[in-house]
TrEMBL record:
Residues 120-323 form the PhoH-like protein domain. This is PhoH-like protein. Pfam families: KH_1, PhoH. InterPro entries: KH_dom_type_1, KH_dom_type_1_sf, P-loop_NTPase, PhoH, PhoH2-like. Belongs to the PhoH family. It is found in: Cytoplasm. The keyword Ribonucleoprotein does not apply. Residues 27-76 form the K Homology domain. Residues 325-351 are annotated as: Disordered. Residues 325-339 have a biased composition (Basic and acidic residues). The keyword Transport does not apply. Keywords: ATP-binding, Cytoplasm, Nucleotide-binding. It comes from Deinococcus rhizophilus.
Amino acid sequence: MTERTPGPSTPEGGAPTATLHLDNQREAYALLGAGDANLRRMRELTPAKIIARGETVTITGDTPEVVQSAERMVRDALDLVRSGGELTPESLLRSARLSDEGRSLAQETQVSGLSLPRGLKAKTPGQKVYLEKIDASDITFGVGPAGTGKTYLAVAMAVQALKAKKVKRIILTRPAVEAGERLGFLPGDLQAKIDPYLRPLYDALYDMLDQEKFESYLTSGVIEVAPLAFMRGRTLNDAFVILDEAQNTTGEQMKMFLTRMGFSSKVVVTGDVTQIDLPRHVTSGLAVAKRVLSRIEGITWHEFTDVDVVRHPLVGQIIRAYEKAEDAEEDKRAARRGEFASIPENEGDPR
């Protein structure tokens, strides 16, 4: 168990200081990172001075508040390591932001009662809530920007449910909207035609299962990966069913998919309403579902934000920049509509 001084102390004539004593060298290595990479990142994220010698970490700063904030960040990073989480530049950044608010990333991402494959853990508080909603609900909608893990985590929950024998099969599907679900013009047999659209789902499964086991499940039908059009007319019992890229469904397709749900089944629908590839005159089935189904008990919605992005830090900045630009464009369109509405009906009419 880590010992530490009880909060920052201020030696006579010195700066406020906090000291943490780690359990062993292995723990120190996991916390500080290869070549002290994590230590350097933590130093970048705080004005406090962090010094590591052996199994002792010393934090000093100009004020007790600065030291307390840095200490929370370091302790949070250590708690994350001990709980099996992964320390990355992104997780350290999230930890530092939460530490400034007196919160803990390790505590807010710990999902009790769930053992996901490959030791997978929630990396943000939003991901934790999402996993809990999937576990508790029959139908869960996960909506948000790219890189938030909404599909990957849903696949992890599906594999966990299969291994725990809560379901007998996993069904993953996406709309092949780029080809209008008319795949005949593409080269190759049917599997070759649809594989490009389903590849992200295959990739997630490869991460969760040994290749031999995955191939065995595919061959036996325990795992099925297919375009959305193939779901029509079916009833899916004892299954964990995931619809990915749901923003590219029509209202009719979404209704068709959701009404395939059978007994002892769980459904997760994921999508990003900022990346709709449908024709302009077609309303996304995801938007229709939000309007029609949001108040039905047993159906849960989870909204991810750029804070939940677990890719390169630039991805979050890119998402925010596009959102800002889109908001500005919408303001311009609204202003133009207001200008047109103010023009008298007969103005400019020569008759």
